[in-house]
Amino acid sequence: MLSKEEISFLVKGFTHNDIPDYQMSAFLMACCFKPLNFQETLHLTHAMLHSGKTFDFSDIPFKKIDKHSTGGVGDKTSLILAPIVACYDVAVPMISGRGLGHTGGTVDKLESIPGFKMNLSFEEFQHHLKTLHFAMMGQTKDIAPADARMYALRDVTATVECIPLIAASIMSKKLAEGIDSLVLDVKFGCGAFMQKLKDAIELAKWLVKIGKSCGKKTIALVTDMNQPLGNKIGNSLEIEETIEVLKGQGPKDLIDLSLTLSGAMLTLGGISRSVKEGIALSQKVIRTGQALQKFKELIKQQGGDERVIESFSYLPSAKYTFEFLAPKAGFLTKINAWHIGKAASILGCGRETVTDVIDPSVGFILHKKVGAKVQKNDTLLTVCYNDEKKCAASMAELTQAFEIAPKKPHLTPLIQKILGKL
């Protein structure tokens, strides 16, 4: 078993370039062949956490609570729940990343709002937390720098899917935010990082246990990402759907998950006595318009064009649309989130490398979800695009994404499991 001092020495040496990449690569591969036990994973989390800057918000007289998702297609719950929770005496410090591959990133979505600034200083971030009760900024090189360097090596050494390494990576960044509690959305399915339900549950258990060991109340929802979440996929389109939900509209699956997550955050913050009561409080601030107003204030504070709240015409929009039609009648039995996400990335929604430039205006609008009855030539999805070649290239993925069968499929709950004590 590796001691705390040994792991600390390794991470510190690697961060300061005293330990070369090939030695760290060997360590990461060894972690896959013989996985770290929990105590070693906890030591690794602490070492990565303290490899850079940590935030201190002790002067803010509210519970500091964040939410983290392991990523998926159409997942814009952070944008919805943060203004909801911030309507109460809870502070939500959100440090988010960009999208990579088939999953979208919160930073990219917010930056589709003209003028919106994600590159905040610590002082600006803290000011927004104090005045608005929430703030959103992009990840910086100062937060858990060891994680960023180690992840780059994991990507090229086939060590990405090691649960202890995933858990240490996620929790080192979240704990650096100076939070009191954390709500996690651990996804499984074809559009998720963890494909199998049992693997997602295992990861969720590790994350909750690390949070608890660090003195942070942590709960995890294990949720289905076999089909996209919500109806809109693409950066500006997902801002549209965020605003629709905050106006009391939007698709049921997105609303239900967002409300459950916000209800859990309000419970951890001591505002509600149960998730059910937290959901009711969340619905209240949507109904009164407070949550929408809070989101509008954030847009204004961070330099964005607040007129997007009143009219989507102020958001980037694609020049062309194309209707993707059902090839036959029956019931929609599958909408493969991975193929949808891949098609969106081809269209310009995402990036394959960090340096790729995205198109904030393109994406998809789903008109049917799994379980829906369809007729031949019904519109399954609208493609919003700017480039004919990219639109044509995305078709190869879209044709594999939808399955139609004679019998209605058995529908499983979106939220499969909740781990951790409230």
CATH architecture of the largest domain: 3-Layer(aba) Sandwich
- What proportion of the residues is helical, as a percent range? 40-55%
CATH class category label of the largest domain: Alpha Beta
Largest sheet: 6 strands, mixed
Overall description:
It is a single chain. Helix 4 crosses helix 13. This protein has 3 domains: 46 residues; 248 residues, Pyrimidine Nucleoside Phosphorylase, Chain A, domain 2 (3-Layer(aba) Sandwich); 89 residues, Pyrimidine nucleoside phosphorylase-like, C-terminal domain (Aldehyde Oxidoreductase, domain 3). The chain is of the alpha/beta class. Helix 4 links the parallel strand 1 and strand 2. The protein has 15 helices and 13 strands. The longest helix has 17 residues. It has a 6-stranded mixed β-sheet, with helices on both faces. The protein is globular and about 65 Å long.
